[in-house]
Every structure is written in structure tokens, then in C-alpha cells.
Amino acid sequence: MLSIETNETKKGMGIHARRILAYVVLILVSFLCLFWFYVLFVNATRSHGELTKGFTPIPSTYLLKNWQGVMAGTLPIVRGMFNSLFVALCSAALCTYFSTMTAYAIHVYDFKIKKFMFTFIMAVMTIPTQVTALGFLQLVSDMKLEDNFIPLIVPAIAAPVTFFYMKQYMESALPLSLVEAARIDGSGEFRTFNTIVVPLMKPAIAVQAIFTFVSSWNNYFTPALILHNDKMKTLPILIAQLRSADFLKFDMGQVYVTIAFSIFPVIVVYLILSKFIVQGVAMGSVKG
Amino acid sequence: MKKKVLSALLTTAMLASMLVGCGSSNDAPAAASSEAAPAASTEAAASTEVAAEPAAEEGKVLNIYAWNEEFKSRLIAHYPGYEEVDGTTGKIGDVTVKWNITPSNDNAYQNNLDANLLKQADAAADDKIDMFLIEADYALKYVDTDYTMPIADLGITDADLANQYQYTKDIVTDSKGVLKGVSWQGCPGVLIYSRDVAKEVLGSDDPAEVQKAVADWDTFTATAETMKKAGYFMTSSANDTYRVYSNNVSGKWVQDGKIVVDDNIMKWVEDSKKMVDAKETNTYDLWSDDWSKGFYPDGKVFCYFGPAWFVDFSMAADTDGSIANAGKWGATEGPQGFFWGGTWVCAAQGTDNASLVKDIILKMTTDTDIMTDIVKDDNDFVNNVPAMEAMAADTSYASKVLGGQNPLAMYCAGAEKIDLSNLSAYDQGCNESFQNAMKNYFEGKTDLDGALDLFYKAVEEKYPELTH
Amino acid sequence: MAKVKRGKVVSYNKWGYIFLIPFIVVYLIFQLVPLFRTFYYSFFENYRSGLTQIGPNFVGLQNFITIFKNPDIWIYTENTLIMWIMGFIPQIIVSLVLGAWFSDPSLRLKGQRFFKTVIYLPNLIMAAAFAMLFFTLFSEGGPINEILMQLGWISEPYKFLSNEWSTRSLVAFMNFLMWFGNTTILLMAGMMGIDTSLFEAAEVDGATSTQVFFKITLPLLRPILIYVMITSLIGGLQMFDVPQILTNGTGDPMRSTMTLIMYLNKHLFSKNYGMGGALSVILFIITGLLSLVVFKFSNKKD
């Protein structure tokens, strides 16, 4: 202990000074991250009349009233929440399951176009989705799938980034001998995949499921071009509509409540799963 | 071997899909549009037959497309038998009314309506649009198509509509002289001023006295200077006066496929730039939170411009502490006459609820009792000449928001004078882009030419067929 | 025995194709076909005027000529890159510093779990809601102006969204906030993976922590840094939600915050598929080139 102390004092800056600096910066950065959400929370609890009088850091008592106001309005945000939830859950499920399957195909089997496929998938990883948006829109309208969740969910099956993560994870977590053993036990390939590989991949699947869920939940570009019917709209589209204020007849309290409604559920889920998520990001880096 | 087969398969699949993609994209739009028209007209025939039948044969869902809640709130309050279920649904008898509300910013409402009208022929009966609302700014775009149903086809006669202001019919009459929409309101605008500020700065809040200070644009700008010295903004935003100038133009926005900026609109730019530079007004977007701050005394705004619906529907009359809530606004004619908005109800070709649509239109736009109630309850200006003139003379009618003033005579006079011969189908996109572009000029981010270029650019992005 | 096994393996390998089917089918239908159709569209005049469809008429390269005759495309590219860089530089610096602190055992920082949780939080927030929130907070009569005025720092409201650099800074700042937590955790994990004996050796040689950081940590982190840079660049080129909602699609002031994708969105929104297609092709090429440059750059030094 003593030796470490003396060792450290020799360095450019004293350990205590560095530690204090670190704490100061961390607190500052945390403040930057949290401040906005605090203001949002406070303003969501204040009436429009109070909001016009200026900002105060103390929450008021109008949260429920603002919420009731939003519910009485025309913006179907609860419906939007369920739409978003449905799309995000389905995307996450399809994306992780099929990306695992794709990765499994490349990882375990040895076939002719394997190398080509791997290079191909890596190459298309960088194509922005917006570039294909136009053709995608036309396709969707030809297939009569506008105002439908299918074009938002099914494409998740082909997700190069998730594939890449799964492939990396398999390299360290899925010994080929395990697959061999299953074969000797007479398990079919598809059954082996479902009963042995998928359970083994659980940690990676969970992490990617969360990421896919979040990016689908937050997606604005594609849904805004495909969903026109209020019944089908997802939350981000409804949030963007808040800009036309005649919607809420200028009740800023209601605007803040609506934004809060779309943010806080995610924060709560995140806080419950935070350890898991932070680890998952780190995991991706070591392997990626 | 396998490799070859598979790669061959892959290439064929890719080629095939490319061809399919190309082929269908080539034919699809043309086919769709040529199909749509006959389908629509046959259905029109069908629906006129239906109109004569009892309502029991009709669809159980009435789909109404709108960009805000105004018409909805009118139906809730005044249509007999309308029950509100929740924010976006209601019931009339056993018919469910579905409101499809998309805000009008950035052409979003029109784009949504277009997409659904184009699909109208293929839509299931309960998903077909039955009624949709349009504004004067783009009325022509819809009126001149087969997607709107002639009002006569609903069984509504000219005699039914005899009491309406002529201009409300002119706007929605197509190039063949067929009436395609009906409105329950008239939208002549007035200048709405804060009585407290008028008393303090001008010495009187009497409409006739205030009118002297805003009689034309020169006195208006002079008063703005006085207001500034007294610590008040003349208007909340430069955009407030925009309609007043743009309604008094000498030509259309688009002439022969070219965008034309009228002299009177350039005068708005000139006058507004001076006012913004002198800090006599601001550059807020209309309908933004900042703009609406003047609805409260702390906003320190002297006046707004607006028609009857604006006074009651938009000025926060039901919020404590607002000027409207205290009845502290007054109304006077202002520098020039203008109109703002107005909502027309159209029946969509292919509706499966024709007789209900007909009944709603008749009740809301021709029934004198209901319309008188609308004036009394909501201070709207309704589209019924005799009723409005009777009420204008009625000393017992008073607008609470306007501190007991009866502004109807002013509206009546304005409504007779409205001339809408310079409307074009591009008005909304042009007006919106013009104000957005000029905001940059007012704020000193660019010079006038730069702002005009930005305007042309934005309009041409919205309407690729136009040039300047 | 060995021969039998090999035979078996070959028969198993057809499953490789089978398991690839979902990916290939979905990719073909929803990505590749749309990509080619987009390219195909770029050669046509094809838009909707009101409720009337114009085109598609084959116009060759006319759409591309129209786009390149106008300097706008370069302005929007520049805007996009400027706003990306303004967010990326602080992002990488802060992330490196925080990552170094988190992974430095001698600092023994308390509450690491809390701080990591907090800095990652903004990454999960819906960009649309985040932008909407900033729009209301930074409007002329919004809370930020009120707070600054209460503090006496400014005497009249500052028009954050009416000035080129303040608007760009807001966009960059939001991107920074949303991504620095993610980058920090990535870099931290990378730093943890570095062989500790290297640090010990450096310590014995009497290197300061700054020297250790620049001479050992940074060079060893290069692969991860490059990964971060590529993903961030691609994300940056796709910048849309934040500036779109913050400026209500106008890219004001004077389109100084208009990004490439916002411009594309304008054409898609007014159903101008010809120009939209041409723009998509250009975007595809720009992205491809930039990715290639970064890949080449990173491979050369390895």
C-alpha cells in the first residue's frame, strides 16, 4: 500500500489531484446528461399558466391534469406506445433469432460461397438505410403494405451488424465439438440449433435484442414515410407532430408530458437492466 | 457444381427482381391513375342511389379527415345525436365516427390525404374516406379533381345553400361550374387589440378611436413606434400581418408555371423588415409557443390579426390568466380587409355514408338554429347571411372575449367584400415557404436576394413542376 | 473412420445454405431490390403534382445534372460533415479521458457503476423526443433562456435557433451527448484488455500517467478507435432526426443545418422520385468512398 502511494506521487500529477479532477469532470458530465431530463420532469408537472411565468426548479402539481389533457386530445400516444412496443419487440425477436442463424451458418458449416457471403455482408454493413428508402417505399406500396407493420419488422431479419456481433461471439463461446456431439446423439441440425446453440447464445442474444429494440423504438425516418394512419403511427412520428402546436392549443404542459411519456419508460427499463446493457456494449468492443 | 447452381440461381433471382422492379414501376402509376377515375365514377353513381335509401344500408364507419379539432368540436357541441367516445372517435346513432387528424405543417395533411384518396377505390368500405376538410389555400387542388363529390350528387340543392355568402361557394366551384364543398363559416378578419394597452398608450380602447391609429399601413407603422416606446410589441410576429398583405395582391402565386411574388407581398417584406429591425415585432413562427405568449398580459403584445374562429378557438380563452379569459381584447377593421382560412367540408367520391354526410352538411351549414347557436356559444362567424345580419343588429349579443363588443357588423361588411379571384392551388406551400425564407432575412442571416432564392428553392422542392 | 466423418460433414454442409436462406431472401427483397430500384428511378422524371402523376419519363442523367449544377449538394455535405466533426471531436476526447479514468485501477474511482449508467443513458433516448425537448428548452421564451436571464448572464433572450453556429452547436451537442457514453464504454473495455505488464514496465521506467496514455494506451487502442470512427462517420452521414425536428425540416438559418438526408427527405416527401433516386445514388457513392478511405487509411498502417 505504502509503496504504491510513493510510486504514484512520482507521476505527473498527484493521485489525489487526479482523483478529484476525475470526480469533478464526471459530476459535470453526469449533470449534462441528467439536467435535461430534470427540466423535462419539472415542466411536465406544471400548468401552461405557470410555464409562461418562467422556469423554477421545483415541481408543481399539474402532472395528472396535463396527462388527462393529453388523453382528451387527438394525439393517440397510448396507442402509439403500443404500436412502438409491438414493432420493437417483433423486430428484436426476429433480428436476433435470424442473425444467430445466419452467423451459425457461416460459423459452423463449410461451404463454397461461405467466404463470399461473409465478405458481402461485411461490405453492405456500411450502406445507409436511407439510400434504399426510395425503392423500399415503392416496394412497400406495390406490395400494398403501407400503413402496415410488416415492412418495419421483417427487414430486421437481415441485419449485418447484429450478424457480425453474433459471429464474433460464437467464435469464443461455441465450440464446434458441441455441435459434433449433438450430431452423434442423433440430433437434427435444426434441432441442434434451436435446443443447443440458441440457449448457449443467450447472453449475446439478450444484448442484441436490447439494441435492436432500442433502435427500432427510436426509429423515425422509415416509419414516418410508411405510416400515415393515426391508428398505426409509432411514438416518434407522434412526437414530431408536436411541432404543430395548434394540436394542443398551446398547452406546453401537455407537450412536456407527451415527451416525458415517450422517454421515461425507456429510462426505467434501462435502469433495471443497466448493468447488463453496459456490459453488453463492452463485450461488443472486445470482440469487435 | 452446387456453387454454380446457386450462383446461377442468385443471379437470376437478382435479375428477375430487378426486372420486376423496373417493369412494375413503369406501369404501376399510369395503370393506377387510369383505373382510379372510372372506379370512382361508378361508385359515385352507386352512392347517389344509396342516398335515397334509408340510412340502415350505409356503412357503419364515417371517416373524416381533418388537420385540427375545430370541426370535431363543432360537431360535438352542435350536431344532434353526436356522442364523443374518445379523442379520435365518436358515435352518431350506430355509426362510428373516426377522426383522422394530421397537422397541416409542411403539407403533411395534404400528403396524407392524397395518399388515401389515391387508394380510395381499393379501400375497404369502412376505410374509405367519407368526408374531408380543406382550406382556401389549397381548395382548388381538390375541387378540380374527381375525388371530391359534387354537392348536388348528395341531394343538396342550390336552394338549400341560398343563404350562404357567395365567396364561400366561389372558392369550391370547379372549372366546370360544379360546387364541390360547403362551409359553415365565413372568415373575414379583423385587427384584435389589447384593450388595456390601447387605453394606456392610445388613451382609449374604443374601436373607432383605435381604428384611427391603425387605419392604413403608414399610421400602423407610426403606432408601432409609439408602442415600442411604451414597452409593447405592435404584433407578436412579422407573420401576423402577412395575410393582410397577401390577401390584397394583384395576381396569383403561380402564373403559367412560374412563381410570381406580388408587389404587395414585397411591401410586407419591406414594412416587416423595418419593424423587426426596430424591435417593434418578432420573427416567431405562427402557432409556436413563443408567438402565443402575447395571448397573456406578460407577452406585451398590442394586437393580432384574425377572423372570428381565431378569436375564440385559438386565443386561449379557457385558460386562466389569458387576456381572452378576462375579456380584454377589442376588435377593429385594421389597415386592410383580409380573410384567413375557413374550412370547407367535402364529400369524398366513393363514400358509403352519403346520407349521413348530407345530413351533417345540411345541419352544420344551413340550419339557422344550429348556426345561431354556434355564433352564440363559440363566437364563430357562420355562413348564413340573414342570420348574421340579424345578429349583427342584435344588441343582446356580445362577445365575451372582446369585452362585450358585438363585432358581427364588422365581419358582415368584411365578408361581402372578400375577393378570392387570386387564389391558386399552390398557396399553402408558397405562403409557408415565403414566411420561412423571409424569417432569415428579417433576422439578418441573409440579404433580400438570398431569402428570395431560398424561397424559390423551397417551393420548387415542394412542387417540382414550377420554375421562377 | 476419418473418411466416413468427412463424408458426413459434407452432407451436413448443405445446412449452411439452408440456414442462410432467411437472410438472403429478406436481404434481396427489402434491401437489394430497393437499392437497384432506387438507382433505376434516378434516370426518370417522376413526381406527383397535386393528385396527378407526372412521368415516369426517361431523362437519362438529367436529374444528376440538375443536382450538380446547383452547389447545394456540397453545402449540405459540408453541413453534415461539420456538424458530425463538431460532435465527434469532443466525443472522442471525453470518451478517451473517461475511459482512461474508469480503467485506471490506481484511481480507484467510486460509483463507477452509477457514472457509467448515467453517461450511457442519453444513447437510449428517442432522438425525436430528445430533439423536441431541446427545441422547447432552447426556444426564445423557453426554460434555458429564462434560467440564463434569472442568473443575469444575458439581458434578453438569445435566439439559439436563429444563429448558424448556435443551431449547429446544439445539433452537435445532442449527437455528442447521445454517443459519448457508448464510446466511453467501448474504449474502456479496450483499455482493460491491454496487457497490464506493459503498464507495470512503464511505471518501473518512471513514465508519467500522461506518457503512458500517449505512448502505450493510445497506439494499442487504434483498432477500436478506427472502429468507433467508421461507425460514427456512417452514423454522422445519416444524420437526420435531430436537425429535422429541431428546425422543423427547414434547416434554418439559411439551410446551414440542412443535412444530406434531410434534403433527400424533402424530395421523398413531395413524391419527387426522380430527384430522390439521383440523390440516393450520390449518397451511396459518397458513403462508399468515405468508408473506403477510412478502411484504406486504417489498413495501411497495420
TrEMBL record, chain B:
Q: Which SUPFAM superfamilies match?
A: Periplasmic binding protein-like II
Signal found in the keyword field: yes
Cited PROSITE patterns: PROKAR_LIPOPROTEIN (PS51257)
Q: Which domain of life is it from?
A: Bacteria
InterPro entries (alphabetical): Bact_solute-bd_prot1 (IPR050490)
The residue range of the signal peptide is: 1-30
**Alphabetically ordered keywords of this record:** Signal
Under the heading PANTHER family, the entry gives: ARABINOSE-BINDING PROTEIN-RELATED, POLYGALACTURONAN_RHAMNOGALACTURONAN-BINDING PROTEIN YTCQ
Could you tell me what this protein is called? ABC transporter substrate-binding protein
Species of provenance? Waltera intestinalis
Q: What is the lineage of its organism?
A: Bacteria, Bacillati, Bacillota, Clostridia, Lachnospirales
TrEMBL record, chain C:
Keyword Transferase carried by entry: no
Topology of this chain in the membrane: Multi-pass membrane protein
Superkingdom field = Bacteria
Q: Could you tell me which SUPFAM superfamilies the record lists for this protein?
A: MetI-like
Primary residence: membrane
What keywords is this UniProt entry annotated with? Cell membrane, Membrane, Transmembrane, Transmembrane helix, Transport
Q: Where in the cell is it found?
A: Cell membrane
User: So where does this one cross the membrane?
Assistant: 15-36, 81-102, 114-138, 170-189, 224-246, 273-295
The GO cellular component terms are: plasma membrane
Tell me one GO biological process term. Answer: transmembrane transport
The cross-references to Pfam families, in alphabetical order and at most eight, read: BPD_transp_1 (PF00528)
ABC transmembrane type-1 domain boundaries: 77-294
InterPro entries assigned: ABC_transporter_permease, MetI-like, MetI-like_sf
The family this protein is said to belong to: Belongs to the binding-protein-dependent transport system permease family.
The name on file for this protein is Sugar ABC transporter permease
- Which species is the source of this protein? Waltera intestinalis
